[in-house]
Design goal:
Structural class: mainly alpha
Number of domains: 1
Number of helices: 5
Strand content: under 5%
Order of helices and strands: HHHHH
Helix content: over 70%
Radius of gyration: 28 Å
Shape: rod-shaped
Number of strands: 0
Distance between the termini: 62 Å
Largest sheet: none
Length: 122
């Protein structure tokens, strides 16, 4: 036990410096991790909002008919949301079945099939 006390006494300066550094840097590290976690949550919320807006552009809003080129762009952008691939694939497959009989949507159906194929590969 005497050896421990001797070692502590001889290294007291270094130990006090380490404790001071830990007490100074510790809160900064905690604050940085907290900030990163909050930022990640904000980004997820923004992505979720954007995803739902894209789905809205695809299927249209009540009282407004969607424009074909906006729909095609929305389908293409849905590829940027891999966390939603399962539901996106189901939505697009359902819309392909529902809209395949409609006229003037061939380009949209091709883009939807291309996106479903890409989703299936991942």
């Amino acid at each position: 036990m005497d050896r421990v006390w001797t070692w502590l006494n001889s290294n007291a300066g270094v130990l006090s410096l380490l404790v001071t550094l830990l007490l100074t840097i510790g809160p900064l590290v905690v604050a940085a991790f907290t900030h990163m976690a909050l930022r990640r949550q904000e980004l997820r919320a923004q992505q979720r909002t954007l995803y739902h807006e894209l789905i809205g552009h695809l299927v249209g809003r009540p009282g407004r008919a969607p424009m074909l080129d906006c729909q095609i762009a929305a389908v293409f952008e849905l590829r940027s949301f891999p966390e939603y691939f399962d539901v996106t694939g189901r939505i697009l497959k359902g819309l392909i079945e529902e809209w395949s009989e409609k006229k003037d949507v061939d380009r949209l159906i091709r883009e939807m099939r291309s996106t479903v194929e890409l989703i299936s590969r991942r």
